[in-house]
Amino acid sequence: MRRALLAALAVLLACAASLLVAAPASAHVVPSTVIALDVHESDITASMTLPASDLSIASGIEITDAVDATTAEEIEQYLEEHFAVTSDNAGWTVAVDDVSVADTEQWGTGEFAAVTATATLTPPATADLRAFTLDYDAIIHQVVTADIYVTLHTDWASGELESARDLGTITTDTVSGAVAPLSIDLDDGSLWQGFAGMVGLGISHIAEGTDHQLFLLTLLLPAPLIALRGRWRGVARPRTTIRRILTITLAFTIGHSATLALGTLGLPVPQQAVEALIAVSILVAAAHAIRPLFPGREALVAGLFGLIHGMAFSTTLTALDLNGGQLALSLLGFNIGIELMQLLVVALVLPPLVLLARTRIYTPLRIIAASITALAAVGWLVDRLGVPNAIGEAADALGVIGPALVLALWLAGIVVAVRRLVPRTGRSSARDDPRALAPLVDGTSERESVVRL
């Protein structure tokens, strides 16, 4: 049994040590104009990225690394003259602002200077917001080889959030030389589609949020254990363990739900400070998993740190720029998605944790897992304070190996379960029986009944 458990532990270590390799370099291609649409209740925001050199050639405007107010106004006016939207034979209002220049990269182009700008497209009161014609010929009317890609970034009503759906390409007709307008039909949206999309966004936010997962899981590591004289020395009954885990999860939910709502409704969120505090929360949870810092008060700590994590969650909704009924449904749906994913994570790790906590292998497994988490937290903290580092980059890869870690836990737990069910042959002793390694201790008498792990 010990060999099998050690093998599972080796899988955990191998997974934790693996890193994402760099993606192969792509062939160099010519920079293109990209127009990404965000569809709101009453207007559409178009985020524009244009190659600065092509824009300068087409417009005659001299563009440098720093755009002053006069140049920005010239660019805004030029883009408005070459950007028109119509629907139901009615013209929309097009207003361009937020012009700036920055180095960017797209699709293997390598870095290039790009002009970014935001166009607000507002239809008349009677016009259809979801079916329109986009007539845009900035740059391409002079640089005929230019490419213009129109994509959908967000459309709450259709449930497409953080999307990258291609809506079409604006090109020059090779025969007539004219730039053909692009017809866009977003189909019908609904409140249900928007709500379902927000539930999915909440699920993906936790699934991809390695730091949020690590905080909760690391705080759950000592949940099956009992503290005495500054050390984890005993194992609680399964019922006590389950109650603790549910209490911790509920407290974390209450904490992050409160600040998620407040942050989305306008509470200022200092993003860098919040991200740094999330790394601190993971470091504290990891230290507690190694040596008890606040035994019996895990739920309180989970709730307090949940307030910090909720602020980070709120930035996702704030970026969508929602209001009214969409905002209310988004808060509910996003929160439901977060809870569903949290419950799934807990359900996946709870059974093997309860089984492994009664074996000798759990102590080194817990300490190694907590130590790796602490190291990742330090890397994240330093990075979020403005100092990029290899440890922080490596920590970002932990989410990729999460499924393999869960699989290793389950394999080890299955070995323990099978070992208990299969009758033993030959001589056996209490030392060899995993049930004797860590007798169950009722949570109501933890201080009186303790066993060394």
TrEMBL record:
Question: What residues form the membrane-spanning segments?
Answer: 214-232, 244-267, 273-290, 299-320, 340-357, 364-382, 394-418
Which superkingdom heads the taxonomic lineage of this protein's source? Bacteria
Q: Say yes or no: keyword Transmembrane present.
A: yes
Signal peptide stretch: 1-27
Any keyword Iron?
A: no
This protein's UniProt keywords:
Membrane, Signal, Transmembrane, Transmembrane helix
| Protein name, as recorded | HupE/UreJ family protein
